[in-house]
Amino acid sequence: MPDMGCVTVDVRKAAVIGCGFVGSTTAFALNQSGLFSELVLIDADKDRAEGEALDISHGTPFAKPMKIYAGGYSDITDAAVVIITAGVNQKPDESRLDLVNKNTKIMRSIVQEIMAHGCEGILLVVSNPVDILTYEALKISGLPKNRVIGSGTVLDTGRLKSELGEHLGLDSRSVHAFIIGEHGDSEIAVFSSASVSGVPLRDICEMRGFYNYEAATREIAQTVKNSAYEIIEKKKATYYGIAMAVRRICEAIVRDEKSILPVSAMLDHVFGLEDVALSMPTIVGANGAEGQVPISLDSKEQEQLLESARLLKEIAEKVSG
Predict the structure, then answer these.
(1) 183: annotated active-site residue
(2) Do 60 and 100 have their domain in common?
(3) Res. 3: pLDDT tops 60
(4) Which of 58, 167, 183, 269 is catalytic?
(5) Which residues sit opposite 260 in a β-bridge?
(6) Residues 121-176: pLDDT tens digits?
(7) What is the pLDDT of residues 229-265, one digit of tens each?
(8) Is the pLDDT of residue 188 over 60?
């Protein structure tokens, strides 16, 4: 078991704070994954947390053994990963950044409770706007920056790979590409360094008979950016995709995989940026965000990244002020 301070955490234990659509679906995904043997659910509505725990626990005979229960903040001290999904849902006419004032207050309250009861694990922020709230959670908690990460653009990157795979008629798992920057309207699809099993994306497009590269990639990037809005309009909320993305991040942490995932974390002089949390390809392992990978960007992508960071810093300053 990794030692993350004066208390040795239980690498087989996790906590989910917030049992709405995202929190409950995340709990179910973690139950199915077999990563954890203990999962505590926390919600302002304790009956909701108890109901979700009971419902999932009844399927234990069909999955891996897990102790899943409703609890309180005192139950998270030794959890390896504390997943925060609590917050107000995004409405059809709202952007993720519209949620900032409402959910910043909620995040501050939650993190203060977490730290008051002690926490030696990784804080994984999923609530939106995830980059702003990751930054807030880091500042409020006082934890080392590697131990506070957000789900970032892991899901967006999954959406990009899915769209590219469908466009090319190839397995999306063979697509290597990233969405970076804000998890939201200023996100950047990095096509300049994208590839399919080592073959540059532009080349593989031509090999597959697609020659309208610029138009196709613009359309795919726009589709990815608007995916959440489309889903929210049709079914009021997104939760399955993000639950699977959270499971993937937890997998990298628990297994100390050193996997490269575009999580949201405090930047450390990447492209000259600092004091802002956004998504870049990051080495994720037992200690959380273990370092960002200097992905290759063309001049336009660099400009877009700087603009995304500027926007996020501006909003973070208003919230802090």
Answers:
(1) yes
(2) yes
(3) no
(4) 183
(5) 283
(6) 999 999 999 999 999 999 999 999 999 999 999 999 999 999 999 999 999 999 99
(7) 899 899 988 999 999 999 999 999 999 999 999 999 9
(8) yes
**Alpha helix (H) ranges present in 68-129?**
100-117
In CATH, what number is assigned to the domain containing residue 169? 3.90.110.10
Same domain, 249 and 274: yes
Q: Is residue 269 part of a domain?
A: yes
pLDDT (average), residues 74-93: 89
Same domain, 167 and 84: no
Question: Quick one: which H or E segment has residue 192?
Answer: strand 188-196
- Of 103, 97, 101, 75, the C-alpha closest to 16 is 75
Co-location of 267 and 161 in the same domain: yes
Question: Order of strands across the sheet with 188-196?
Answer: 175-180, 188-196, 199-200
| Whole-number Å distance between alpha carbons of 87 and 70 | 18
Asked if the model's pLDDT at residue 11 lies above 90, the reply is yes
State the residue range of the domain holding 69.
10-150
pTM: 0.93
Same domain, 105 and 244: no
In terms of DSSP bridges, do strands 122-125 and 79-84 run parallel, antiparallel, or are they unpaired? Answer: parallel
Are 262 and 193 contacting, i.e. CB atoms less than 8 angstroms apart? no
* Nearest-10 Cα torsion for 162, 167, 172, 175: -110
